[in-house]
Amino acid sequence: MAERRTQAVGALLSRLAGRRDRSVNALDLPGEIELRAEGARIVMVPAWGGRVTVLELGGRQWLEPSDPPSDGPERRETDVTLAGGYQEAFPTVLPCRVLSKHTGVAFEQPALGELHRLVPKPKIATLDGSVEATLAWTGDRLPYRFTRVTSVSPGQIVMRYQVTNSGSAPLPFLWAANVALPLGEQTRLLLPDNARSRVISQEGIDLLGVGAEHRWPRFRTAKKLVDMSMPDSIGGRFACHLSFELPTGSATVIEGAHRLELRFDATEVSRIGLNVRRRLGGNGLRLISLQPAIGIPGALASAAGVDGSAAWLEPGESRRWSLTWRATVDEPTATPDRTGAGQ
Q1: Which of 51, 95, 306 is nearest to 201 (CA)?
Q2: Structural domains in the chain?
């Protein structure tokens, strides 16, 4: 075990130094941090705002491939929210204009907020049985400190979060982990039965309008009932963004025999967003984004006002939460012996 940890640290340091270890099929990305243990591997890129580009569990890479982030005035909301990989959204999910209670100045917050545009400071440590990386962001337009500690141990990846208000006025925020996954023909989603959902946006499908409420997994459209647990079975070209209020902290994505399981404390992370895009967008985009969230994963301006779902931190106050990712592989079902052998 000690030798494995030493090899893992060596791989991490070589990546931070810009060297590439071709023997582990390293992705050609800038400044990668790779953590691995038996049955678990994660790669993150501080220069891309800490984006996770590889989340490998149960022998499967789960994330939609990542393209380099684009900058400039032509940058669109969908370029960010539908980009591949795993990105942190803070202090908003959808773009909005925010009035800082600290400075009294109003400013624009882009889609997914500002974390993905900032470069966090990395720190790596080895612990008994695991290796972990801490990424720490300092707020640009708002006074806060945001940290994500990613710990990898055999068969498991844990992300521990903390945000602290470093200003002199109350700080509202929304947070979501925007986890982009490919949408396949057999992709299934498991959420707690009867979880209450709200429609944030819809396109190419009529889920009875923005703000309409449904119960998981069967949603009523203007024409029929659809099973949202198998998005591809709905057919057609459509996109929708939903927010779920969860009674228990669990969500599962199923691809054939592979299951990606997300677990969290529902008193800390009480909502999850789901962004589905089926053949709507460039190159017939097929994508689902899972968004474990604090607050309805929409615009901070609404959440801090009419919506009322924003979280608030008093000056000097901190909030902590965590996510645990695991994967399982179903054993193949044995075929009955019909030849009479062994009788």
Answers
A1: 95
A2: 2-329 (2.70.98.10)
Instruction: Round to whole Å and give the CA distance between 314 and 243.
Output: 26
Q: What is the arithmetic mean of pLDDT over 235-245? A: 95
The per-residue pLDDT of the chain, averaged, comes to 86
Q: What is the distance between the alpha carbons of residues 260 and 325, in angstroms, rounded to a whole number?
A: 7
Q: Cβ–Cβ contacts within 10 Å for residue 194, how many?
A: 9
Q: Are 44 and 135 in contact (CB under 8 A)?
A: yes
Q: Which pTM does this prediction carry?
A: 0.86
Sign of the C-alpha dihedral computed for residues 193, 199, 200 and 205 taken in this order:
positive
Contact by Cβ (8 Å): 167, 102: yes
For residues 327 and 261, what is the distance between their CA atoms, to the nearest angstrom?
Answer: 6
Task: Judge contact between 296 and 303, C-beta under 8 A.
Answer: yes
Report the C-alpha gap between 142 and 149 in whole angstroms: 21
DSSP one-letter string for 159-176:
EEEEEEE-SSS-EEE-EE
Which of 281, 219, 275 minimizes the C-alpha distance to 242? 275
Query: Does 217 sit behind a cis peptide bond, omega within 30 degrees of 0 on the bond before it?
Result: yes
Q: What is the pLDDT of residues 32-80, one digit of tens each?
A: 999 999 999 999 999 999 999 999 999 999 999 988 776 544 444 444 5
**Residue closest to 157 by CA, chosen among 265, 282, 260, 25:** 260
